[in-house]
């Protein structure tokens, strides 16, 4: 069904040529690549199966347009509706997901520059996302309002309950302060590296919301390591402050991941390194 919608979207844009290729299958949408009038375009089609909130492509398109005008390395998109289904369309950006050993000084600087543009925006420039939609973190301590002692993570980590409970007020403040726009999902597939080693684009702002820049530095630490997060912080306008706060945000982010995949011993080790 999604490929048929994607094909209809491309035909609405121009003269579609050839078959469509499935580029990615996410939790909330499918991404298809097709050719229109000689240009390769990516169409994202919402799944609408209730597993994740319906993507807010209109909000994302407005944010990406503003970021592109301000000089961020992003891929602006437009929204096209077919049979009541609103889809996102953008030019395909050529690149490969960055690996930890591929972070050159130039790549670090370009990621810091783009994040600097993102983090320079006021909170009201972010898509209006409720607390329940932010990573599904509203299900996880401390953002769900529950006692840690009642949370599944406590049963798996009983020896850490006292240390985590003592940090709860600080973690809550660090996670909830809406100071800017944050991307929140800076894993390797969303940071495309060009063949020359430059930042081709920062992709997928579908989970962006208003929050502290520390969210993004916590993601960098989680997905790419403490060293890379520190290197980006050196070039980022508010990097030192955000990096310091990212330890607390990283604990909440790590607990979220640990709750989803309790068998991952490496996640427990990552959270352990962040605890005082």
Describe this structure in words.
- The protein is of the alpha+beta class.
- The protein folds into 2 domains: 2-91, Phosphorylase Kinase, domain 1; 96-274, Aminoglycoside 3'-phosphotransferase, Chain: A, domain 2, CATH 3.90.1200.10.
- It is 41% helix and 20% strand.
- It has helices spanning 2-13, 57-69, 105-119, 152-156, 161-176, 214-224, 226-235, 239-260, 265-274, and strands spanning 16-25, 29-36, 39-46, 77-82, 85-91, 96-97, 180-182, 191-193, 199-202, 209-211.
- The strands form 3 sheets. A 5-stranded antiparallel beta sheet has the order 1-2-3-5-4, with helices on both faces. The chain has a 3-stranded antiparallel beta sheet with strand order 6-8-9, covered by helices on one side.
- Helix 7 (226-235) runs antiparallel to helix 8.
- The longest helix is centred in the last third of the chain and has 22 residues, at 239-260.
- It is globular, with a radius of gyration of 19 Å.
């Amino acid at each position: 069904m999604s490929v048929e919608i994607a094909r209809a979207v491309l035909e609405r844009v121009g003269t579609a040529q050839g078959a469509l290729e499935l580029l990615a299958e996410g939790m909330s949408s499918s991404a298809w690549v097709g050719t229109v009038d000689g240009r390769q375009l990516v169409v994202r089609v919402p799944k609408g199966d209730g597993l994740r909130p319906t993507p807010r492509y209109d909000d994302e398109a407005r944010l990406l347009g503003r970021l592109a005008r301000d000089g961020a390395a992003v891929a602006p998109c437009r929204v096209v509706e077919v049979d009541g289904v609103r889809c996102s369309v953008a030019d395909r950006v050529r690149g490969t997901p960055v690996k930890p050993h591929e972070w050159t000084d130039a790549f670090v600087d370009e990621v810091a520059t783009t994040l600097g543009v993102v983090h320079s925006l006021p909170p009201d420039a972010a898509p209006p996302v409720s607390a329940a939609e932010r990573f599904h973190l509203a299900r996880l301590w401390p953002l769900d309002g529950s006692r840690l002692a009642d949370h599944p993570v406590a049963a798996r980590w009983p020896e850490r309950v006292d240390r985590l409970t003592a940090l709860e007020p600080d973690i809550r403040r660090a996670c909830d302060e809406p100071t800017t726009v944050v991307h929140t999902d800076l894993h390797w597939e969303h940071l495309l590296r060009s063949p020359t080693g430059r930042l081709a684009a920062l992709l997928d702002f579908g989970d962006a919301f208003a929050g502290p820049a520390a969210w993004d530095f916590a993601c960098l630490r989680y997905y790419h390591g403490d060293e890379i997060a520190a290197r980006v912080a050196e070039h980022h306008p508010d990097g030192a402050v955000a990096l310091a706060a990212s330890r607390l945000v990283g604990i909440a982010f790590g607990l979220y991941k640990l709750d989803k995949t309790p068998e991952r011993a490496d996640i427990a080790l990552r959270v352990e390194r962040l605890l005082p």
